[in-house]
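Sat 14:20. Reprocessing the chain from the morning session after the first attempt stalled halfway. Input below, unchanged.
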Amino acid sequence: MNGGQHMLELRVLGDFQVRRDGEPLHLPPSRKTRALLAYLAVTARQHQRERLCEIFWDIPDDPRGALRWSLSKIRQVLGADESVLATDRNAVALNIETDYARLAPLVKTDLSSRSTEELEAVLASIRGGFLADLSLERCFDYEAWRQAIASEVEIVELGMLRELVERLGNEPRRALPFAQRLRRLTPDDASIAAEIEALEDKVRSAAAQATGRAPQSAPLAPPSKPAASPQDSGRAVQFCRALDGTRLAHASTGSGPAILRAAHWMSHLTFDWDSPIWRHWMRELSRHNRLVRYDERCNGLSQRHVVDISFETMVSDLECVVEATGLDRFTLLGLSQSCAVSIAYAIRHPERVSGMILYGGYVKGWRARGDAGEIATREAVATLMRESWGKSNPMFRQAFCSMFIPGATHEHFAWMDDLMLRTVSPDDAWRLQNAFSVIDVSDLLDKVRVPTLVLHARDDNVAPVESGRTMAAGIPGARFIELDSQNHILLEGEPAFEEFIDHVRAFIAETAGG
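Finished this time. Tokens:
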């Protein structure tokens, strides 16, 4: 570790522990003190005392006094000199490495470039969720930070397990523990269960060859679980690779004629089931159909911080997901910017698209539209996005949320804020918005040859209703439905969402058999 503290170890990948010489140290009973210690260690930078007070204490609690008391307890635990715990009247910094520091570089890298030994070592350090025992529900800024890191850890853990299972296919005994761990994290993923069975067969065959006995057929895996509910099966995340090697996460729910929802930004395959922002969409769309979803690159459980986020690559990713999920013919659902991606796909693969539903989309992105005033405004928002998206103060994200869902309740704002933090990093959010700004499919509209239904909220602030009308007018034979709502993301319980679902079901019934 650091200097004379090389025998000191802070573990944050699971329940919080501080160890010296391999032995756990007694920690203060105060959860805030322990959380402060973890926060300082993981962030590994200098913090202003005033900001730490804002994060962990309310004004009536004498925050500066509480901070001084907590720092004194931390110093007792660590036995640290000024080179490790540095404090002055204005700032605090802690210089101790944590187990997260070994995982963090993997968040922004292609896992296939890392050695097997490194991936195994990092996986061995993950004992559970990030700071699993140190949630502080009343400390919003800290909790938002903790949950955002927890999502990153979850993504990397799943990615490493997938990578090792694929990489070690010819070493079944070595690969099997990773496959079994992956199954525990995604218990309803049928493909992992099948892969475990195949690995077990290889292990038994190898053992039989070594002993000269016939292989036994007794299962090595635990008995299968009862059939999962649609919501549970929606958490059974699977992965495929894009043409450039980017790992894409996808999931499927329900049964019946297939709907493929083309990826849009700010989605998270598992978290969306808990969130009132998207869960009613998935529930209703998979009630009578098989709904296939995937997280866009740089979003959710798909690989983050990817270099190529071009429009052409987004279309290619959709093609790869279609192949990976075995879809033959399906209804293609585009939302927001994925409407343009859907249009490009439908032109290339009309034999697979029984019908296309486009909601809240646009033909040209805000930069491609060429309005100087709009461009200036959007560029200012994009700059604020890069600087303020990941900040603990949610003010900017709440303002951003109000653009997407003006009809949101306080609960919706809180969930949307959490969704934004979990699904995409500040830099990727900024990069994606700039990529979307130059989308232009105006030359493609008249080439669409599949039945198309276009729907749009009348008072949408993100994509004006005129964009939907323009899209429908340019696609031969397309029908246009204007919904009475101001929300870019339709909310559960509002009449416009019920109307949207009714139109979707009627359209699928009309086109799916064709």
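The radius of gyration is 25 Å.
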